[in-house]
# Entry
Amino acid sequence: AVNANGAVATFGSGYGYNYGIGGGGDSSSVSAFLKSGVTAIYSTLNAFAAMNASSSVATWGNMGNGGDSSSVSAFLKSGVTVIYSTYYAFAAMNASGAVATWGASSSGGDSSSVSGFLKSGVTAIYSTTYAFAEWGVHTRTVFITYLSKARLDFPSRLIKLNQKCKWSKAIATV
# Structure
């Protein structure tokens, strides 16, 4: 719950579905951040990310499902404009179109295979339960950062973005 001053109160289980650790109800690790100025809250299945007026982000909840953002802490200190989520991972974008991901690697938390693409120029991110798709202004290419074991085709809403573009699929199988 967020009040008019941007203070956040969390309640509910501190235990998550996965491995019984961190359901997101216990935000004591980021309590100072949540006292005021929070402008948006995002969630995975059992983790949260809160953004404040300074465009910095704090996370809590299940460590493996996005509650631990230490691997991208420098990116999240300032300049974040929007956050997206899958079932177990987050993706944050800044004004230059750079993207950082964290959380379960099997749900898009590991974007190292497309790290060059995510350095700048991303204009949109789409998510499914287990994958992120990033649309870049420089290359007009969509990259899928993780695909489930079943083959995943591009959603029709991505194709409708620009029918005249030549699409390039970056497909990884697991």
